[in-house]
Amino acid sequence: MKTIKNIATYYLLTGAIGLFFINPVWAGIPIEYWTQATGAQVYLVPSPAIPMVDVQIDFDAGSRRDPPDKAGLATVTAGMVSKGLRAGVGAQEPALDENALGEAWADLGAGFTAHASDDRMSFSLRSLTYPDLLGRSVQLAARQLAQPAFPTDIWQRERGSLQSALKEANTRPATVAGRAFSQAVYGTHPYGYEMTEATLAKIDVADMAAMYRQMIVPCRAKVTIVGAVNRPQADALVQQLLGRLVAGQQAGAETCMPLPPIAEVQPLASASEQHIAFNSAQAHVLIGQPGFKRDDPDYFALIVGNYILGGGGFVSRLTEEVREKRGLSYSVSSGFAPGLHAGAFTISLQTRPDQAVEAVKVAREVLTSFVAHGPTPAELQAAKDNLVGGFPLLIDSNRKLLGNVANIAWNNLSLDYLDGWTRQVEKVTLADIKSAFARKLQPDRMVTVVLGGMPASR
């Protein structure tokens, strides 16, 4: 067992070894897909080279589902999943506190984690696939999925720690600027919700348990598997993982009625500026607006174009104009954050407080020019070469491939999405980028937040 644990620890710490080698005769990534009787959707990529499996289970239970006055509920609920288990059936399944649960995973040399993002709550399992070890890992993961204890005393401790962390974060200029920017871009949309000391104070374990019962049910699950299992083994694994959730559901079709729809992010009606006084060595600048949803048909034109504008590091247009020519910032970048709703487009930079006005002016000019005229042919070719050349690094381990296939599952992309990724990038034209940016970005209606470097707004 010690040898198995050592092997498992090695893979847990280093990640899985590369899976695929991209070459001209590459046959693609064989994603298998099916739906179980419970409604759970399963996406499998067999990878037999290493005796290991990675599993990700996603539910529509991210922070966009938080009540406004309890922002942070999804995040803390996911965090509490590892704080202990209720007793199961029989003497073989006693209740486990957080220490005993952690020791149980350490004994297996496996790992199980949970976290929440804006759109989803995700659970991840990693285990070696030796039969005796995998069976016990899946059994423990199934218990953790279905029987989190949500202990009140542990929540009181965790809430105190989180409140202290929030107080400390509020002393950081990046936190203050980011919060102001998010609220200005998203308004009342849940993407703009922020966990605060006030919202934390209103969350109790009953809220977590109620949210969990409603959201974490098999018919809402999208399960992604990458590893040394075939389809029958993967199907049995998912049945075991979700089986206790099925047993714990109340009977009736209402269990999987569609969740309430969430309104889309609204476009900005006009430009706005916030100048926040703050005693910091650097002024923090954020410029942006709502961007686009992940399933937008302009996706590839926008990511290629953004690489040229500000996503390509030291070779981007913003870096050339803001940093190289004028020395206004060490780094400047732009990016989109597409999700189930229109995530923000953001230009971000830091500069000396006395240079903030000029830095904002130059960044806006670069953006306006790019939206109006698009890139040059040389910029487009360089961006394509870089993105296509870097594609193998996106899928060179089990864990990276798992994330990409889970992205396909979550956003209902085609199963051959990864196979066609480089072709889609290569197809992008100058006209595609110019028209896509003109449709998505309005430089004259953006939010600008400057923390430090300017007088505070009244």
Task: List SSEs in N-to-C order.
Answer: HEEEHEEHEEHHHHHEHEEHHEEHHHHHE
Shape: globular
Through-space gap between termini? 66 Å
SS element count, helices: 16
Largest sheet: 6 strands, mixed
Instruction: Work out the radius of gyration.
Output: 24 Å
* Nearest-integer average pLDDT: 92
**Helix-residue proportion:** 40-55%
Query: What are the segments in which pLDDT stays under 50 over at least 5 consecutive residues?
Result: 7-26
Work out the number of β strands: 13
Strand order of the largest sheet: 1-2-8-3-7-6
Structural class: alpha+beta
The fraction of residues in strands falls at 15-25%
Describe the protein's topology.
Layout (H helix, E strand, L loop, with lengths): L1 H13 L17 E4 L5 E6 L5 E8 L13 H8 L3 E2 L10 E2 H11 L2 E6 L4 E8 L2 H16 L5 H18 L3 H14 L10 H6 L2 H11 L6 E6 L3 H18 L23 E5 L6 E8 L8 H13 L5 H8 L7 E5 L7 E8 L4 H18 L3 H14 L7 H13 L10 H7 L2 H11 L6 E5 L7
Parallel strand pairs: 2-8, 9-13
Antiparallel strand pairs: 1-2, 3-7, 3-8, 4-5, 6-7, 10-12, 10-13, 11-12
Helix pairs in contact: 2-8, 4-9, 10-13, 10-16, 11-12, 12-16
